[in-house]
Amino acid sequence: MPQLHVENVTLTFGGLNALTDVSLTIPAGEIVSIIGPNGAGKTSLLNCISGFYHPTRGRITYGEHDLSRAAPNVVTGYGIARAFQNLELFRGLSVVENLLLARHTHLRYSLLDSLLFHGRASRQEAENRAYVERVIDFMELEQHRAHPVGTLAYGIQKRVEVARALTLAPSLLLLDEPMAGMNVEEKEDMVRFILDIRREQGITVVLIEHDLGVVMDISDHVHVLDFGQRIASGRPEEVSADPRVIEAYTGVSEPVAVGA
Amino acid sequence: QKTVTIGWSGAITGPTSDAGSNYGAGVEDYCKYAQAQNMVPGVKLNCVVRDDQYNNANTQRNFEDYVGNQQAAAFLGYSTGGTLQLKSTIQETKTLTFPGSYHIGNIDQPNADYIFLPISSYSEQLISLVEWVAKKERGAKIALVVNPSPFGRAPVDDVKKAATRLGVTIVDVQEVGGNNLDNTALLKRFESAGVKYVINQNTAGPVANILKDAKRLNLLGRMQFMGAHYTGGEDLTRLAGDAANNFIWSTSYYMYDEGDKPGIQLVKKVGAQYSRKPDTIRSVHYTSGMLVASIAIEALRRTKGDGSSAAMLKAVTGMTGSQAFNPGFTVGPVTFSAKDHVGAETLRLLQADATGNFKAITGPQRSAMFKLVHPN
Amino acid sequence: MPASRFTQTGNYRTGYRQDQTIFATYAEQASLIALLLLLLLLPQLLPKTVLRDVNMIMIYAVAVIGLNITTGYTGLINIGQAAFMGVGAYATALAATRWNLPFFVAIPLGGVAGAVVGTVVGLPSLRLKYLYLAVATLAFQIIFEWGVGHSPLLEQGGAISLPTVQVFGVRDTFLNHNAFWYYLILPVLIVLALLWRNVLRTRHGRAMIAVRDNDRAAAAMGINPGNSKLTAFMLGSFYAGIAGGLFAYFQKAVVIEDYGLHISVQLLAMAIVGGLGSVPGSFLGPMFIVALDRIMEALSQKLGGANLFPAGVDVATALRPLSFGLAIVLFLMYEPRGLANWWRLARLYFKKWPFKF
Amino acid sequence: MTAPSTHPSPLHAPPAAPGDLTVNNVEVVYHDIIQVLRGVSLTIQAGRVTSLLGTNGAGKTTTLRAISGLLRPENGRVREGTVSFGGQTLSALSGTDVVKAGVVQVPEGRRVFKHLTVEENLRAGAILGRGQWHADLERIYTYFPKLPALRHKQAGYTSGGEQQMLAIGRALMAHPKVLLLDEPSLGLAPLLVAEIFQNIRTINREEGLSVLVVEQNANIALRNSDYGYVMEGGKIVMEGDSAQLASNPDVKEFYLGVTEHGARKSFRDVKSYKRRKRWM
Amino acid sequence: MSLLPQLLLAGVVIGSIYALAALGFVLIYKSSRVINFAHGQVIASGAFIAFALTQGGLNFWVAGLIAMAATFVLGMLIERVFLRRMVGQPIIAVIMVTIGLASVIDGILHLTPYGAGSFSFTTPAALTGTGLDLFGTPLSRVQIVGVLASLALLGGFTYFFSRSTLGITMRAVADDQMAAMSVGTSVERVFALAWAAAGLTAAAAGVILGLMSGLTIGSLTGIGLKVFPVVILGGLDSVAGAIVGGMLIGILENLAAGYLDGVVPGGGTREVFPFIVLLAVLLVRPYGLFGTKEIERV
Ligand SMILES: Nc1ncnc2c1ncn2[C@@H]1O[C@H](COP(=O)(O)OP(=O)(O)OP(=O)(O)O)[C@@H](O)[C@H]1O
Ligand SMILES: Nc1ncnc2c1ncn2[C@@H]1O[C@H](COP(=O)(O)OP(=O)(O)OP(=O)(O)O)[C@@H](O)[C@H]1O
Ligand SMILES: [Mg+2]
Ligand SMILES: [Mg+2]
Question: CB–CB of C219 and A51 under 8 A?
Fold first, then answer.
């Protein structure tokens, strides 16, 4: 499985540097967290990786693919999927339809096949549907399958968002604050999904999260951003003890206790 | 008593409805009047006036209804596009048709055996104006301003040909539509090109705006503005005010203030009888509507109520020589024959005076040049 | 399988393939056959003037399906659909008169011309959003009308007459004109509607809907939003082009006024009243608008004769714009999902009948 | 989750004082069919900070909307019960009049005016103090010293924490007596969460403002409030002084995520037995 | 005298009228994100109300003011009866409502004696005759008053939106209605006010247009269409954009008429040229010259 390399990426908006010379590597199969204060550039970094922004300088590669100038849909084609910080679902469509959409790149038939809906299109659509149902099972969304996403509770919508990313069958999954606005128990559910995704499918996960408890418990590796710069990185224990991190981010002088 | 249908389809609403609504009223009122006078003995006239909103699909539907379902003896049309579109159907159904659009293409072959223009075509009207100019000033520079539509563009080719033969130059042909809020550029360019005559083929609104701008730019004395049938009349003087002074207009109709003419007396009488507003009665389009209705009804009368197309065609093409029809709305009689599909082809040039009334500056005449540039 | 296919209580779906079918239940299939029969006999059952309206409705329906593809399903507001019809109409007319091609080639060519022009006009949609795109299509409408008016090849918008059509020895005449074209337009409409229904079940259709709902998320799903938008424009104006070609033949001549802005507005109104993003709505909308217009016309005819109102007040002429406008406004205010929603409710009702709950 | 089985009794909600805002047995339905609140009663005591905890979808936001009159635009309606404050029945008033009565809500997700500058955002909040907005601006800037530097920046481009401060500041421009905060910590980094709550405390102290804060982050909410309510399935299931709530074993497990012994549970130990099916 | 300065001058004159007509558009869009296809009809209503009043013997100026008051109320009514229910509906639906309204108002105008035909104000004595002669182009007093009135209204609204609290509130409502409600803004009042103000400016535009080019229902309502290139060029939500856009379109039209018409057979390029420019501008600046760029962060 390919590795993600971010090399000296700088991103500027007008006069503002959202990212300054950021470099990092995401090894295959790991859960890597990115933390940092608000406005540190975490989402911007994710946007650069997934093609929504293009770095002003620097390079991002995934295996042999260069992502620096690629459009979002192209990046998705390389096996990189993401869930958004603020829900970006198709609110009028049902859960199944949302997930079917994520199969777009896995379907290979032409507009002509579409118009006629003969063999190839029809066969692929049936397989497609079966695949989606397996993801629904995995993310435990059965009972919401046919509901329009917009009417679902916030926590469920967050889960659909992750399910949809998973339906893309990615090798790298980018999750932007998937647990924001959840209580402890709901967070536990989401953590369980993330751990299973990695365990059962070996998908690399990049996680942005403000709940340090979660981050420290499940990450293999943590990067810390502040004012667009990487100020620390390492294993969770190392990072949480780093004084610069404490000053910029946690504000707690003792390292966050790693659970019993 | 048998019922015979005569159907009109035109724009009571929508584009050009300012003319169309009065035109339709003229058709309707003349019909009622004819019925009241029992003009065609033994026949109940069923005149249907329908709004097609200047939409050709509606025109065709009305046509199908009149001709297909009600065996109409004549179809009274209105718009240029609608009439052009219907030509092959008119030919196929042998329906006597009198359009409100005086586009020469309406009676150009093929498919023109049953179409008759009530008065002279736009081409002839404009060429008359060009002739007037040529007589006044050899080598004069003329600009044409036309409506951006098939209606406006209709006479351009003929006029160009005529101008060459008459020894005047058409310096420029410009399209100006209803949204011309400012004509400075147009007029200034005409001025710098040495244009002294501006001939319009348009509706009154755009022409009025041009005249007002010309007045502001002190060009009225230096350029003579002129126009074909739909540019002039009451509408123009109402809109342009004193900027319409000296505007020269070519039309076949008598004016409202020529109260001694029997046709105008009839217009006033009928208008009052069916309580039309004064503006409607004064409008030349009301007279136009009455003219086409009168032609169709006269033809029907001459067939003794036989509205069949063969009989109607015979009656209409028989309106020639001593059999010409003269309802008095136009300066000349309405004459038709198998070769002649133009009714009242004599026209006059009129000029607006300081009070806004149009006064004849020529007698009834025909354009000699028109026949030459547009042989049938 | 139950003992008899006809006594079973429902159609049970046992595979995802079955889930894909459009006409799933036997009741639906039976009513479909009945409907087809009815449609075949319709010209015999209807008065001629009504049949003309039916033809108009069907031509509009083709254009409205196209409009729904761009505006209803893909969310690209298009105020220039009549101009795309015009492109098809002029292409068809040229093909028929200059190259003497038969109508069954000329009309598809109209569709292709529509698609080509549509794709080009759709290019700004790659950058523009919402109203800005709407205004770009409006600009196209105006440029189109102006361009035709300045093109001698197209008679500057004056009439280009089409040759009379003959099929299996039957000629298009004044007397059979409406029935003749009914049998030609109907299959075209049915095929085009089914083709679009097919697209809707597939990745191309879904992608368009995704782009409409959230184009950023669509991109994250691997959908190229630009591609989808262009495809939508291409398909939508292909349909418009076909409608234009049919209309050209049906009207017997192409005249620029038939493809003006007001027709674009009317098509939008049809799509809205029918229900945006709905195939049944694409039929119901034109039906409603045409029927409304006929009723109002008849009514104003009555009122006009009645002299009920003071001189100078023309109630009759006000009725049509008034009712057209009110219909749109009231639908949007009280039934924003359009007639298609009534259709859906009616079907639900009959499906469950006699059990109403 | 399972509801805490015991409702602490006796209820020690103090009797309503004159400045209190009381919610009395309120039921709310959306679209006339979806019932979300099933008889909620609570009191925002004058001059104190009250917190409202609960799972996703419990109806916390709905409760705030019922108080602030913002249900109507969401197609919701108070079907039963009343909200009263200072002798006025808020549930009968429009959103504008509720603000005039001195109750202002800071909406969930901040909702700053993205295209307006920071300063314009604050001015847009000054619908009651129009004449004195200048002085009010300065007042807000002293509470949130980060804001003056951003005054001409478009609010849409400021960071999450800055937006939250701006949203609170904007609400304060209307001189409220009661401030309703909906999940102020949502998506904020720990340091900022602490800062925001500090600010809330300061304002509460200095202006004598009553505050109702809805939170998922029970930890910080209970630490920074005087009294707390726990809500589930559209009902209040628990209430008490904040300290007392924080020591309740159910609250500890489900909201604070600590084991009985006070140690934090590890997320690595999530209950995988919950998974019913294997995938692929 | 060379042509260019005259063309520019004529462009500015007509452009300021376009700007005034566009102002109403912008007012509504700025506060409620509604694009009003019925604006031309409101302009026509204002003009005909004023005309009817002068026909009734009223002084021209008084009639103009009453017409402005009447369209102020008309705007408010439209918002109240039709648009208020549309809050939260998709844009296409709202656009279509205004298209429907355009047709409804058209119908109502047809109910009046002014539904068909052309009319013209009796120009008040103070406005007859030439006012100024610039670059050899005489400007009528009507034109001068038109330009001044447009600039005054445009300037006033520019100030209003950037400085006054109410102006800021209106922008806030456009940005996020729910949030505006949460701070106590009456969104309904803001919308009603925006529509009312738009109505008022529409009547002003209608009366000036009527003075300049007569009253014909078709060409008055047609201005509603002409305004699109203006607002798109300037940016839909910018008053300053309306001014600049108006002037630019006015000038471009005149340049087209002055230089292109001579080259293009048939001319009439002023009718399309603005729209071609519009397309070109949109491709380079999708939000117009001064429009607010939508803030999109994922
Ligand atoms: N489209 C944009 N245009 C201008 N500035 C932007 C844009 N997107 C982000 N920024 C700026 O870049 C900086 C980094 O923002 P980003 O969203 O990446 O932060 P973050 O670390 O994800 O914060 P949070 O934890 O609040 O989500 C901020 O100052 C933000 O205002
Ligand atoms: N506008 C609405 N229309 C219909 N249902 C709604 C609406 N708003 C909320 N609901 C429903 O009401 C219930 C309670 O929602 P509410 O937003 O009050 O919960 P909450 O406790 O604030 O949750 P969260 O922690 O996710 O913000 C949810 O099931 C939600 O789906
Ligand atoms: Mg972020
Ligand atoms: Mg909430």
Answer: yes
